């Protein structure tokens, strides 16, 4: 019987070295990309907005320069608005297409689930396997509440609450309350 020997996998130190080299290369490329973008930005700005030479201009010439700049600003704002409108239209179109794709894939139908009663022992047996031998009675650990205790705590008043309010209103009611408090204190 011939056995084919597999090549050993890459060692951990070699893997770590390769990973660090990849990260270093990615970092270099990212820095280069940032520099390229900055260069493109400077080039575009030099093309579109040449430096202003305002020295030696009269008031009328400065006003004309301001009008030209305002006209350029208006043109740029119009372009920006048009581009924003196109972007919004495209995002709306993308959302619609995503919805269509989801509809074409078909909807996932949930199966009808049945309620199954499983005891705690069965759950533990399924989780722990056949090693589970201890029987667990969860109801034995519950605190029992006696009905008599709850009835003693809450006395039931059958009298009408309006009569009690009328009896305690005014100075006579206050005197009754004072006398009752005085009597219980002694």
UniProtKB/TrEMBL annotation:
Q: Which UniProt keywords apply?
A: Acetylation, Actin-binding, Muscle protein
Q: InterPro entries from the entry? A: Troponin (IPR001978), Troponin_I (IPR050875), Troponin_sf (IPR038077)
Residue ranges of region Disordered?
145-186
Keyword presence, Acetylation: yes
**Which Gene3D superfamilies does the protein's record reference?**
1.20.5.350, 6.10.250.180
Give yes or no: UniProt keyword Acetylation. yes
Alphabetical list of Pfam families matching this protein: Troponin
Q: Where is the composition biased (Basic and acidic residues)?
A: 145-165
**What Gene Ontology terms describe where this protein resides (cellular component)?**
troponin complex
One GO molecular-function entry? actin binding
Annotated GO biological processes are: cardiac muscle contraction; skeletal muscle contraction
- Role noted for this protein: Troponin I is the inhibitory subunit of troponin, the thin filament regulatory complex which confers calcium-sensitivity to striated muscle actomyosin ATPase activity.
Homology family: Belongs to the troponin I family.
This one is known as Troponin I type 1a (skeletal, slow)
